[in-house]
Amino acid sequence: MEDKIIEEIMRIVGKENVLASPEERKCYSYDARNEGVIPDLVVFPSSADDVSKILKLANRHRFPVIPRGQGSGLTGGSIPVYGGVVLVFTRMNRILEVDTENLTVTVEPGVITFDLQQEMAKQGLFYPPDPASFKYSSIGGNVAECAGGPNSLKYGVTRDYVLGLEVVKPTGEIIKTGVRTMKGVVGYDLTRLFVGSEGTLGIVTKITMKLIPLPEAKATILALFQEVEDAASAVSAIIAAKVVPSTIEFMDKASIKCSEQASPMGLPEGIGGLLLIEVDGDRESIQPQVEKVRKIVLDKKAIRCDVTADPQEADRLWQARRVLSQATYNLNPVKIAEDVVVPRSHIPTLIRALEEMEKRFGVPILSFGHAGDGNFHVSIMIKDTPEDRERAEKAVEALFEETIRLGGTLSGEHGIGTSKSAYLGMELSPEVIATMKRIKELFDPNNILNPGKIFPE
């Protein structure tokens, strides 16, 4: 990048808000899974005006701009593909307004999801979306990926809470989309277009979201099954009984074994499936919900069912799920993490297919995730060798083929980024992809913003 461009950017944001050394820039070339090229510059904007000026400069000089939150994504959405400037939003981290009368909150993109939830809870309010990275991921990143989490079953995902946005278009204009009300149908719904667009259509600099009252009480249920089919059948039966838990989390046999080795809970050997179920609501409704769920899981051959309303005991029951992500690295040093979604009725078929893939490709494959909405996190654990990486690539392709065959989708909450772009055509028709590309070209005629993402090059 030319010195005059760097000097102009420093004038816009201040020299103290620019990282230019190779060592500093290297730190922003990767996310939680992928590595891209080293950016030419790393910039920390403090306002929409800063972003606007940099994007206008980028259009004049034709350099890429890549928006970034905490870099916790798993598909390469925030990594540079062609160099350029990485805009990091960690310093735009203010909660700007809480409207307790209308139950809305307005924040900057760098606010950490967990911090927002904690602050809202102090006022008896609840922001439900809770991706696994919620203790360190930012709201801006959640919006870019339309993040979900365990609470999605009952409460929905990020797009269900975003009412309005302040967005800087790729060409530098600042626009406001959406409303601050619960209803609004004036013109096209640009807000929903930006949510989940992975930073390719605009840079979000302000988010207004709806809140709901914080549930009064919660109970946690741990159910163990010898057969995975029984666990899946229990999930369907719970939903059919018109009980809507806030969370139904699943772990397969391999995940349970891995978790138990890392942090023993005394779970019996040979468990084929584990369900962690939470119900919430007003105090009077909790016990009837618990009794319904308990009866269902026992009817579906659960060999053990533990129930608690005590927060500390609930933390203990969640231990197996909480340690799992890191525990998987005890198997092998490299994780290929995918998040597919299938209809709930096909959960056992997918799990059996994964067991077959593990044998066929000779690499450990674990599955766990949000059984209530069919969103499974599949971890393929490999050694860092060309042979294992080739096996993993074949396993990923087989996973995606099976997911599509079962009527599912290739990503529930991680997005496409760079790691899944080659598989986009497995799910979307050429006509649909071409339409999406035309939308990208309309917003970003010079392909300045986050190039190389979503669409195969």
Written description of the protein model:
The longest helix is centred in the C-terminal third of the chain and has 20 residues. Among the domains are: 119 residues, Uridine Diphospho-n-acetylenolpyruvylglucosamine Reductase, domain 3 (2-Layer Sandwich); 104 residues, Alpha-Beta Plaits (2-Layer Sandwich), CATH 3.30.70; 85 residues, 2-Layer Sandwich (Alpha-Beta Plaits), CATH 3.30.70. The protein is of the alpha+beta class and 457 residues long. The two termini are 23 Å apart. Helix 14 packs antiparallel against helix 15. It is globular and about 70 Å long. The chain has a seven-stranded antiparallel sheet with strand order 15-12-14-13-17-18-16, with helices on both faces. The protein has a five-stranded antiparallel sheet with strand order 5-6-10-8-9. The chain has 17 helices and 18 strands. The model has no long low-confidence stretch (mean pLDDT 95).
Task: Outline the fold blueprint.
Blueprint: H1 3-13, E1 18-19, H2 22-26, E2 41-43, H3 48-61, E3 65-68, E4 85-88, E5 95-99, E6 104-107, H4 113-121, E7 125-126, H5 139-145, H6 152-155, E8 162-168, E9 174-178, H7 190-194, E10 203-210, E11 212-213, E12 217-225, H8 228-240, E13 247-252, H9 253-262, E14 273-281, H10 283-299, E15 302-308, H11 311-317, H12 319-322, H13 324-327, E16 334-341, H14 347-361, E17 365-370, E18 375-382, H15 386-405, H16 424-427, H17 430-443
Parallel strand pairs: 2-4, 3-4
Antiparallel strand pairs: 1-2, 5-6, 6-10, 7-11, 8-9, 8-10, 12-14, 12-15, 13-14, 13-17, 16-18, 17-18
